[in-house]
Design goal:
With 709 residues, the protein is of the alpha+beta class. 17% of the residues lie in helices and 35% in strands. It has an eight-stranded mixed β-sheet. Strands 1, 2, 3, 4 and 5 form a five-stranded mixed β-sheet that branches.
Length: 709
C-alpha cells in the first residue's frame, strides 16, 4: 500500500462518518406493498439525509419525498439542546432528516427539521411545514393520518395535518423537571427505548410517558476551552443513586386523562411499550435489579393492568428489539433465556432451540415471525460473526438471508427489505423482495473505501473465543513476527467480530502501519449464548482474561510478536485497554484508552447495576472491577507501561471525571501517562479533522511506545 493511501484513509473515514453517509437506512414498507420509504444522503460525504420513496408499482422508481436543503431554503440546521441530547443517546451523527414516522397506510410522513415540523405526502411527493410551537421533537402521525403528535418544551402536543391548525397541548410539564412524551436518559441510553408516546390504533388517544427527574442527582459539564460559558447541568443517575420517576397515562384527544397503574415501586423501569390493533397496549416493566420483569396488558378504560407473563433470571434479563408483541391471534411473542439458549416463544410454545441464538424480532406476520439470529451453541457448524434473518413458525425455521455476512430486514406483508453486509464486499447491499423473490436493489451512494481488510475470522483458546485477525496486505509468510495490536470493544452489547467488510477497516489501517491486529469478542460480548454473556456477572475483569486467552491462542497460527503487544479501545474498550497495562503489564506493553470507565460508581444505574449490583451493597465488587482502586497502581513489582488516555470533555455518558480520577490515581502512584483532552467532543467518536488526526496520533504513540519509531 502506498503512503498516499495510508494517509488518505483517516481523512476519508472521517469525512464519510465511517462510510455511513450515502447508505440507505430506516426503511418502512407500506401495507399495500407499493412503496418503500427510507433515508439516504445524496453522496458519501454529504451529511444531510433526504426522505426517499421507492415506488414498486411504478417500475421500482426512486424519488425524493423531502429535501432538507429545499425545505430550509439552504439555511443551516439549528438544533435545540433536547434534540442534541436525543441524537447523542442514539449515536446519530448525520444531519438533515435523521428520523421520521408514518401513518398506518404509509401515505404521510412526519419529521422534525431544525426544530420545525414538516409532513410529506408520500404518494404525491410533496412536503410542507406545519406551523407549531417549537422546537419540535419526535413528531408522529396518528394511524389515520389526521393528526401529528410531538413534544415541545417538555409538553406533549397534537396538531391537525389538514392545514387547519388546531394545535394544542394534551399534557404540559408541572415543573422544569418533568417531561411528557420523551424517553428519559436511562431508557434512551441503556434500554433501547428511544420514544415516549404511542398512538392508539383508532387514532383517538395516546399512551404517554411522564418522566420526573427531580430525584436524580445533578452534575455539571463545563467547557474549559470557553471559560466564559456556564457549565451545563445534567441529571445523571449514577450507580446506586436515584433514577427518574416514570409513569404512563392515557391521553384522549377529547381532553380525558387516565393514569396507567402498575407497581412502580417494585418495577420502576418502563422498558417497552407495544400498541397494535392485535390487542390491548402491552408493557414490559423491570425490577431495578433486572432479575424480574412483567408483561402487562393495559385496560384502556380504567388504566389497570393485568400480568400476562413473568420472567425471572438469577443474573439479569436482557432487553431485545421487537419484543414483546402480540401475534395476530392474540398470543404473546417474546424472547426468553431457557435451557441455556435464547429462544423465540409464542404463547406457551417455544419455537426455536439451542441451534439459534435470537437477537431480535423483526416482524410478526399472520403465519410466521421474522427474526434476527446467530448460530447457537448447538449449531451444526460455527458461523463466526454472522447474523442471519429467519422465518419461524410452528412448522420450523427457514433462513431468509444467504451467504456469510451480517443481515437485517424490514418486512410488511409480502415485501421484505433485506440489507446484507458481507466480508468481501464494501458497504451494504439492500435488496427488495416480494414473496421471497428479488424485485430491485436500493442504490447506495457511499464512498468506496481506499483499502480492504485482509481478514481471517477464527476461534482461539479453550473457550473458542471469536476472533478477527488482520495482517498488512503486503505481508508474506517468512517476513517474521509482527508487533501486535489488540483492538477490541470486548464488553456487553458490543460485538466487533463480524462477518462484514467495513467494520474492520480501521483495524486494517492499523495493520498497514506494521501491526498484526487482533479483535476478540470474549465472554460478555453478544452473539453466542446467555451463559456466554452472563459469565461477566460481578467480574467485568473476566473480559481482560479472555483477551489474553485469545492472544496466546492465536500465537501459534499467526505471526505475533508477544514481546511487543499493545491494546487500543474506546468506551468499554478503553476500560479494557487501561486495565491491560495496569493489571497485566507482563502481557501488554502499551495502551491507548479512549473514554474509559475508571470509577465504575460514576457510570449509570441500569448498565452498571445489571452487572455489578448496587455499590452500597457490594462495594468490594465495584472495587475489584474499577481501575482507580486497582492494587496494581501502587504495586512496585508491576512495571510501568506507556498509557495514553483520550477523553471528550463534553461527554455526558462516560463523563470526563473518569479520566481525571484515573490520571490523579496514576500520578499519586508515580506512574507516567499521557492525557489527551478533546474540547467539545462527546462520547461519540469525533469526526472530520479531529477523527483523522486522532488516528495518526494513536499510531505515533504506539510506535514510540513499542520502540518502532
Amino acid at each position: 500500500m502506498t503512503s498516499r493511501q495510508q494517509l488518505s484513509f483517516p481523512r476519508q473515514y472521517a469525512r464519510t462518518q465511517r462510510y455511513t453517509l450515502g447508505v440507505p437506512r430506516a426503511f418502512t414498507v407500506s401495507p399495500d406493498g407499493s412503496r418503500v420509504v427510507f433515508l439516504r444522503s445524496p453522496s458519501g460525504t454529504d451529511r444531510a439525509n433526504r426522505l426517499w420513496v421507492l415506488d414498486l408499482a411504478d417500475g421500482a422508481r426512486e424519488r425524493v419525498a423531502a429535501d432538507p436543503d429545499a425545505l430550509l431554503g439552504g439555511a443551516e440546521e439549528e438544533l435545540s439542546p433536547e434534540e442534541r441530547a436525543r441524537r447523542e443517546r442514539s449515536r446519530e451523527g448525520a444531519g438533515g432528516i435523521v428520523g421520521y414516522a408514518v401513518d398506518g397506510a404509509v401515505e404521510l410522513a412526519a419529521f422534525a427539521l431544525s426544530g420545525r415540523l414538516f409532513v410529506a405526502e408520500l404518494r404525491a411527493g410533496t412536503a410542507r411545514e406545519l406551523r407549531v410551537p417549537g422546537p419540535v421533537i419526535d413528531p408522529r402521525p396518528s394511524p389515520d393520518g389526521r393528526h401529528v403528535a410531538y413534544v415541545s418544551g417538555g409538553a406533549l402536543r397534537v396538531t391537525g395535518t389538514g392545514g387547519d391548525g388546531g394545535d394544542r397541548a394534551l399534557a404540559e410539564p408541572e415543573d422544569e423537571n418533568v417531561t411528557y412524551g420523551l424517553a428519559e436518559f436511562i431508557a434512551a441510553e441503556e434500554m433501547g427505548r428511544s420514544r415516549g408516546f404511542w398512538w392508539s390504533p383508532e387514532s383517538d388517544r395516546l399512551l404517554v410517558a411522564r418522566a420526573d427527574d427531580s430525584p436524580v442527582q445533578r452534575w455539571w459539564i463545563s467547557d474549559p476551552a470557553h471559560p466564559d460559558r456556564e457549565p451545563v447541568k445534567v441529571a445523571y443517575p449514577a450507580a446506586g443513586t436515584a433514577d427518574a420517576e416514570v409513569s404512563l397515562c392515557l391521553l384522549g384527544l377529547d381532553g380525558t386523562r387516565t393514569e396507567v397503574e402498575w407497581d412502580r415501586t417494585r418495577y420502576p423501569y418502563l422498558a417497552r411499550v407495544h400498541w397494535s390493533s392485535d390487542g390491548a397496549p402491552l408493557l414490559l416493566v423491570q425490577a431495578r435489579d433486572q432479575r424480574t420483569q412483567l408483561y402487562l396488558a393495559v385496560d384502556t378504560a380504567s388504566g389497570t393492568t393485568r400480568t400476562v407473563h413473568v420472567d425471572e433470571d438469577p443474573d439479569w434479563l436482557e432487553l431485545l428489539g421487537g419484543v414483546p408483541a402480540w401475534a395476530p391471534d392474540g398470543r404473546l411473542v417474546r424472547i426468553a433465556d431457557e435451557g441455556g439458549a435464547r429462544v423465540l416463544a409464542v404463547g406457551d410454545r417455544t419455537l426455536t432451540g439451542a441451534q439459534l441464538h435470537l437477537r431480535g424480532v423483526l416482524d410478526v406476520g399472520e403465519n410466521d415471525v421474522l427474526v434476527s439470529a446467530s448460530a447457537g451453541e448447538e449449531a451444526a457448524e460455527a458461523e463466526i460473526g454472522e447474523i442471519h434473518v429467519y422465518r419461524v413458525n410452528e412448522l420450523g425455521v427457514e433462513r431468509v438471508s444467504e451467504g456469510p455476512g451480517v443481515h437485517s430486514a424490514v418486512r410488511c406483508g409480502a415485501v421484505t427489505v433485506l440489507a446484507s453486509a458481507r466480508p468481501g464486499e464494501p458497504g451494504t447491499t439492500v435488496r427488495v423482495l416480494r414473496d421471497g423473490k428479488p424485485v430491485t436493489e436500493v442504490a447506495s451512494y457511499a464512498e468506496r473505501p481506499v483499502l480492504s481488510p485482509r481478514l481471517t475470522l477464527t476461534e482461539a483458546g479453550p473457550h473458542r473465543i471469536p476472533c478477527a485477525v488482520l495482517l498488512p496486505r503486503d505481508y508474506e509468510e517468512g517476513d517474521g513476527p509482527l508487533p501486535v495490536l489488540l483492538d477490541p470493544y470486548g464488553g456487553p452489547h458490543g460485538q466487533r467480530v463480524v462477518a462484514a467488510h467495513n467494520p474492520h477497516l480501521t483495524s486494517q489501517w492499523f495493520a498497514e502501519q506494521g501491526f498484526a491486529v487482533v479483535v476478540a469478542d470474549g465472554r460478555g460480548a453478544p452473539g453466542r449464548s446467555p451463559g456466554w454473556e452472563k459469565a461477566v456477572k460481578d467480574r467485568l475483569t473476566l473480559t481482560l482474561d479472555d483477551q489474553i486467552e485469545a492472544l496466546h491462542g492465536l500465537a501459534d497460527r499467526f505471526p505475533l510478536d508477544l514481546e511487543r503487544v499493545a491494546m487500543r479501545g474506546w468506551s468499554f474498550g478503553g476500560y479494557l485497554a487501561a486495565m491491560a497495562v495496569l493489571r497485566r503489564p507482563d502481557v501488554f506493553h502499551a495502551a491507548v484508552a479512549g473514554a474509559p470507565m475508571s470509577d465504575l460508581r460514576l457510570y449509570d444505574t441500569h448498565y452498571m447495576e445489571r452487572y455489578l449490583g448496587l455499590p452500597q451493597e457490594a462495594p468490594e465488587v465495584y472495587a475489584a472491577n474499577s481501575l482507580i482502586t486497582d492494587d496494581g497502581l501502587s504495586a512496585p513489582e508491576n512495571p510501568t507501561r506507556p498509557l495514553m488516555i483520550i477523553h471528550g470533555l463534553a461527554d455526558d455518558n462516560v463523563v470526563a471525571a473518569h479520566t481525571l480520577k484515573l490520571s490523579s490515581a496514576l500520578l499519586a502512584a508515580g506512574r507516567p501517562h499521557e492525557v489527551l483532552p478533546l474540547t467539545g467532543v462527546t462520547h461519540m467518536t469525533p469526526q472530520e479533522q479531529v477523527a483523522e488526526n486522532l488516528l495518526l496520533l494513536q499510531v505515533d504513540f504506539l510506535k514510540r511506545s513499542l520502540g518502532l519509531a
